[in-house]
Design goal:
disordered C terminus, Beta-Lactamase, Rossmann fold, 51% helix
């Protein structure tokens, strides 16, 4: 039975039972009240008869008593009246047959004085009997004289028994019951109907709606809603909650259906991706295996050199293509797992784009495409992960070349938009439909299946590109028209506080031309032979896989390096101590002792701590490597170009030892240049000369001189542009510059030179002054100041540790703030300071020196780095040291100080610095302080 039928039935039953119980109670009460009223009427009647018969009983007037009884018998309700004598016999009666008979026990007991009260009781079911005594009262005895003398005073004269019919009472009660039942029935019907109506309207009908709606929802109709009659009661609240729930179910169902569609689409796309990937992998593998079998099985005399080279090139090309496919899949997996690491840094746009263009130019030339580049002159550097930035450009430019037909063009442009650098790659290719412009940035997707089959590809390149851009704080979008080409645009943040100065137009032209000139030259160390020269720098390759070790060794020997090998950690440590390599290529997955432990041991040993370690491993964990002190990190499979680039950067940061200090002289007067060169050569300097600005810059980039003597009036390019270019390029940023001039400098020129050069000398003045300044600068050079090792040409960490330990001990003895003198860090500060910061960040011994002292101020003294330039260097070092996490009790302060006239000794400068640092610490701890 349904609830909407059960509830009314239960309500009717409850009301019926309750009403019946009430009616019974009312009838009982009413019957009792009618009986009581009837009894009172009977008593009143008996009293009246008693009063009327009392005198006759005294006078013993039997006839008059009988006559009175006969008159009373006319009352329909009186069935019988008996007058009983004191002797207990019926003296008079309305029924003649009972006269003189003996009365009942109740009357005799009453007359005998046993009860002394009237008797009232039912005699049968249809009548009521009332027996009342008749006594002689004093008032009735007046006619007999005094009361005392009156006979029978207060004695019983007899008794009256009245038998009254209850028919009238029963009829009255019956009528009352009928009225009660009628009223109760009408009330029951009215109340029950009202309650059932209200229940149906307020409860049952909404519940029925809810039940129907729930049933329809269970059948799949998620748009079902129930009307809300009133939101102020519980049913309305339930209806509202039900509608909300139904809406949520509908939305969740839509999301689930959409997710199912997405899953089906992803499943389809993955199936398509696997089919495409199968083709993409098998194609290069087939080529590699095929040409390898040809080379293996074909006798050498049957293949000429051109065929052999062509076959090898096909193998290498397809191997790199296969590597690219695998890297894309691995990169995507890293990004999705949140394990892709970014290493943002500020770098020159030209440096990165040069690599991209040099790689993409052959691909464009193969399809006869014009590859155009337009970089805004205002844009010099960006802040991003350089490797990921190149990969973004490789993907976009590679796609543009792939989808552009022969004879078209691909252009790369870069501009500044607010605080972002905006890059655009535009092609004249097939274009992308509007509905495909968003989906092509999703994994496994290209514009359509036909394009995928026609142009090949896995559909991962743009997805990775989008993720790389967004991970670096940028945004990427596409503008395209079918048949008219496409423009992919993306943004990359600009440096918040640039440390690389902007280039002037003239400087850009000089650098560009010099770069073009140097690109035409053969790479250093490659003279067409794989045999290294006897004094070539040693490199240790630590690799347990013989094939990989042989491959790395072949690459290094081609560059002119001397290569030694170690297959495990013990051999690596032994050979590193024996040959003192300038670099170590270290694998992590080594037998017995892994590469992390080997790296720790290398950096903990003073004999091997100076060697630059480049990790070459399939394990991608550069953070661990840099934390332990590695110089760089390469993830297998290795790229020859990338590995050699890292080695070159390592050598640029720590140049090789020179047997003689190198001086470059650039003068407009060839005779003056020759005279100065002869003077310096007699003093043991290696000298090179140039007669123009462009030639001077080219020679400086080639030689990395210790000192450059520049004529202010150089022909061709401005001397100021040459100075700016020297200060910007990493190979010459440490070169000390002396300016010679015959003209008086303006205030503006003097201020400009003060920030960029070490000395200005007037031409024609005493040559001893020039020689004295050159000797002073030479002594301050990092090599001569013992910051660079004389044997290896690398930053001398052992010397730094030694000086640091000495200064800590001295500071502890005298309760001084800690300061360390790093003498002679002038223009070379940009190279040396990162090394210092690296020691403090990565080397536990240096940190322990500081930690043992407790509350301390660590100061680096920078002689000859004054003014704004010195302050800029100091701020940069503070930023580097701030990442060292030296401890909460260490206060780091950097001071730039100078002794232009040479009258202040190093010890005096340290004392002055300690005083300043004490003041600084009292004022609040960390900060920047310039001491001039």
């Amino acid at each position: 039975m349904k609830l909407q039928n059960k509830v009314p039935l239960y309500v009717v039953l409850i009301i019926l039972l309750t009403g019946s119980a009430g009616a019974v109670a009312i009838i009982a009460v009413q019957g009792q009240a009618s009986r009581y009223q009837f009894e009172e009427t009977a008593r009143a009647l008996s009293a009246t008869i008693q009063n009327g018969l009392e005198q006759d009983m005294l006078n013993q007037d039997r006839n008059h008593v009988q006559q009175t009884l006969d008159d009373l018998s006319q009352n329909e309700s009186i069935r019988e009246i008996d007058v009983i004598s004191p002797a207990g016999t019926i003296w008079a009666s309305t029924i003649p047959e009972v006269i003189d008979s003996v009365s009942g026990d109740q009357a005799r007991e009453l007359l005998a004085g046993v009860t002394g009260e009237s008797f009232l009781g039912e005699y049968g079911n249809r009548h009521m009997t009332l027996i009342t005594p008749i006594t002689a009262k004093a008032g009735c005895l007046q006619c007999h004289g005094s009361i005392a003398a009156a006979p029978n005073a207060q004695n019983y004269l007899g008794a009256i028994r009245v038998d009254i019919s209850t028919d009238l009472l029963d009829q009255s009660v019956a009528r009352s019951q009928q009225v009660l039942f009628l009223v109760s029935g009408l009330t029951f019907i009215l109340v029950t109907g009202t309650i059932v109506f209200m229940l149906r309207r307020s409860v049952l009908r909404p519940l029925s709606r809810l039940t129907g709606a729930a049933s329809r929802i269970s059948d799949g109709d998620y748009s079902t809603r129930v009307p809300v009659d009133s939101a102020g009661n519980e049913i309305g609240a339930v209806s509202i909650a039900f509608n909300n729930m139904a809406g949520e179910v509908e939305r969740n169902t839509e999301r689930l259906e959409e997710a199912n569609r997405d899953l089906e689409e992803v499943s389809h796309l993955k199936s398509e991706f696997l089919a495409n990937m199968s083709h993409e992998l098998r194609t290069p593998l087939n080529v590699i295996i095929g040409f390898s079998e040809v080379l293996k099985d074909t006798p050498p005399e049957q293949l000429d050199d051109s065929d052999r080279i062509e076959f090898c090139e096909n193998i290498v090309t397809n191997g790199y293509h296969l590597l690219e496919l695998i890297n894309d899949v691995l990169d995507l997996a890293k990004v999705e797992a949140g394990q892709m690491q970014m290493t943002p840094q500020e770098f020159y746009i030209g440096t990165a784009l040069k690599d991209v263009i040099s790689t993409m130019q052959p691909l464009a030339a193969r399809k006869k495409l014009r590859l155009e580049v337009d970089i805004s002159r205002r844009l010099t550097s960006i802040y991003a992960d350089m490797g990921k930035f190149k990969q973004i450009m490789y993907n976009l430019v590679g796609n543009a070349i792939k989808f552009t037909p022969e004879g078209g063009s691909v252009s790369i442009s870069a501009t500044i938009k607010g605080d972002m650098a905006r890059f655009e790659v535009t092609d004249t290719g097939i274009g992308v439909r509007k509905e495909d412009r968003e989906r092509i940035f999703s994994e496994f997707q290209q514009a359509d299946g036909s394009s995928s089959r026609h142009f090949e590809g896995t559909g991962l390149g743009l997805a990775l590109t989008k993720k790389f851009v967004e991970m670096q704080g940028g945004h990427i979008w596409l503008e395209s028209e079918m048949g008219s080409g496409s423009t992919f645009s993306f943004t990359i943040p600009l440096p918040g506080r640039g440390t690389l100065p902007a280039a002037t137009p003239a400087e850009r032209e000089i650098i560009a031309q010099v770069a073009a000139d140097t690109n035409d030259q053969a790479p250093p160390g490659r003279a067409g032979t794989t045999e290294p020269v006897p004094d070539s720098p040693p490199i240790l390759v630590v690799e347990d896989d013989e094939a990989t070790a042989g491959l790395i060794g072949a690459w290094l020997r081609e560059e002119g390096y001397r290569v030694e090998f170690a297959a495990d950690g013990a051999q690596a440590l032994e050979k590193a101590r024996a040959i003192h390599p300038i670099a170590i290529c270290l694998d992590i997955m080594l037998p017995e002792k892994d590469g992390w432990q080997v790296l720790h041991d290398l950096k903990s040993d003073p004999e091997t701590a100076d060697a630059g370690v480049i990790i070459c491993s399939a394990l991608d964990n550069p953070d661990m490597g840099f934390a332990l002190g590695t110089a760089d990190y390469c993830v297998k499979p290795l790229s020859r170009r990338h590995l050699l680039d890292k080695l070159r950067r390592l050598q640029q940061a720590f140049p090789r030892k020179r047997s003689q200090p190198q001086v470059l002289i650039a003068d407009s007067d060839a005779g003056s240049a020759a005279s100065t060169a002869a003077m310096l050569q007699r003093q043991g300097f290696s000298v090179a000369t140039a007669t123009g600005g462009r030639q001077a810059l080219a020679m400086a980039l080639k030689l990395s001189p210790d000192i450059a003597i520049l004529d202010l009036m150089l022909p061709g390019d401005s001397c100021f542009d040459v100075i700016s270019a020297l200060r910007r390029h990493p190979l010459t940023i440490g070169t000390s510059i002396i300016i010679t001039t015959v003209k008086e400098l303006t205030e503006e020129q003097r201020e400009l030179l003060d920030r960029r050069v070490q000395k200005v000398v007037v031409k024609g003045s005493n040559r001893d002054l020039l020689l004295e300044e050159i000797f002073r600068l030479e002594k301050l050079h990092p090599v001569r100041a013992q910051l660079v090792d004389e044997e290896t040409g690398l930053f001398n960490r052992r010397y730094f540790h030694k000086k640091l330990a000495e200064e800590v001990a001295r500071a502890q003895r005298h309760a001084l703030d800690l300061s360390v003198l790093l003498a002679g860090i002038n223009g070379a500060a940009a190279d040396v300071m990162p090394g210092v910061a690296g020691i403090l960040r990565n080397n536990m011994r240096a940190s322990d020196h500081l930690a043992r002292y407790g509350v301390s101020s660590f100061a680096i003294l920078l002689p000859e780095t004054t003014g704004e330039a010195g302050l800029a260097v100091a701020k940069k070092v503070v930023a580097l040291l701030g990442k060292a996490n030296l401890g909460a009790d260490i206060s780091i302060s950097i001071a730039a100080a100078a002794s232009p006239d040479g009258t202040i000794s190093s010890e005096q400068m340290i004392l002055r610095l300690e005083q300043e640092l004490a003041i600084l610490r009292q004022a609040g701890g960390n900060g920047i302080r310039a001491i001039n």
